[in-house]
Amino acid sequence: MDEQRPADPGSSSAARAPLPSRAGQAATAQPPVEVQRAAPGISVRGLEAYYGDNHAIKDVSIEYAANRVTAMIGPSGCGKSTVLRCLNRMHEEIPKARAEGKVLLDDADIYAPGVDVVAVRRAIGMVFQKPNPFPTMSIFDNVAAGLKLNGVKGVDLKERVEESLRGAGLWEEVKDRLDRPGIGLSGGQQQRLCIARTIAVQPAVILMDEPCSALDPIATLKVEELIEDLKARFTIIIVTHNMQQAARVADTTAFFLLGELIEHAPTEKVFTTPSDERTEQYVTGKFG
Ligand SMILES: Nc1ncnc2c1ncn2[C@@H]1O[C@H](COP(=O)(O)OP(=O)(O)OP(=O)(O)O)[C@@H](O)[C@H]1O
């Protein structure tokens, strides 16, 4: 990592505050978020990740600020998805894959011995590239399944499903056909259904791995608007290949190259006056 780069935005106490100050973010024009529910940030220290002998992630330290959207960008194979999967311990599900280092969620290391991995994934939910509703289930059951799979008990299912579909901006479109199959929805609606399934569990953080790459421009816009709304209640970390998308949705952007974090700064700075030459070459399309 470049020692000369500016301090990570959202670092230390800023990541914990309900309304994190945006130190060094004067260049960003975005208004402050009206936080409806304070979510913790994630602090990564010295993360190393391997696939067998392949040392894919090298000494990554980064602060993902609370109630903010952080985008991770970089050329194919630079390690964005691997870092993302390390943030909720999905990486270790891949045979021969392992990770070292600390990932702190509100000061608790999710890699500490004895940590309940199911609880980690409940707190840090994930939305995937391709919408993946359960094919045999209704719209209602798809959302309720998120709760059942995560062992959430004692909630009013109907209430939580409605609240989650509203939160995902889908309620008005599906309220009269909750018993119809989830896969009968359009691609964009399916992705919002998957987001509803994720938020039904009330995680603190939502990880998104290229959530719009299978969607058309209109569906993409809806999901991007949704991401903007969701940060009032969740901390959002998104991997995207699309630099315009990062510029539209992210408060801060992290640029990765060959498994290393090169630069993490307010999005506008990354795209206009990056500190590292490699970032500049990437964002101006000179490689990648
Ligand atoms: N399941 C896997 N098994 C072995 N190696 C993997 C696996 N997934 C990723 N890798 C390797 O880890 C490195 C980082 O890959 P990763 O998928 O995290 O990059 P990425 O930036 O998300 O790429 P892309 O933008 O193409 O999705 C690459 O060298 C890749 O080949």
Automatic annotation (TrEMBL):
Any one annotated GO CC term? membrane
Question: What SUPFAM superfamilies does this protein's entry cite?
Answer: P-loop containing nucleoside triphosphate hydrolases
Q: Is the keyword Signal assigned to this protein? A: no
Region Disordered, residue ranges? 1-34
Q: Does the keyword ATP-binding apply?
A: yes
Q: Which GO terms describe its biological process?
A: phosphate ion transmembrane transport
Question: Entry's InterPro entries?
Answer: AAA+_ATPase (IPR003593), ABC_transporter-like_ATP-bd (IPR003439), ABC_transporter-like_CS (IPR017871), P-loop_NTPase (IPR027417), PstB-like (IPR005670)
According to the record, the segments passing through the membrane are none
Give the Gene Ontology MF terms in alphabetical order.
ATP binding; ATP hydrolysis activity; phosphate transmembrane transporter activity
ABC transporter domain location is 42-283
Q: Which UniProt keywords apply?
A: ATP-binding, Nucleotide-binding, Translocase, Transport
Biased composition regions of type Low complexity, renumbered to the chain: 11-23
Q: Which CDD domains match?
A: ABC_PstB_phosphate_transporter
Q: Which Pfam families match?
A: ABC_tran
Annotated protein name in UniProt: Phosphate ABC transporter ATP-binding protein
Which species expresses this protein natively? Answer: Baekduia soli
Q: What is the taxonomic lineage of the source species? A: Bacteria, Bacillati, Actinomycetota, Thermoleophilia, Solirubrobacterales
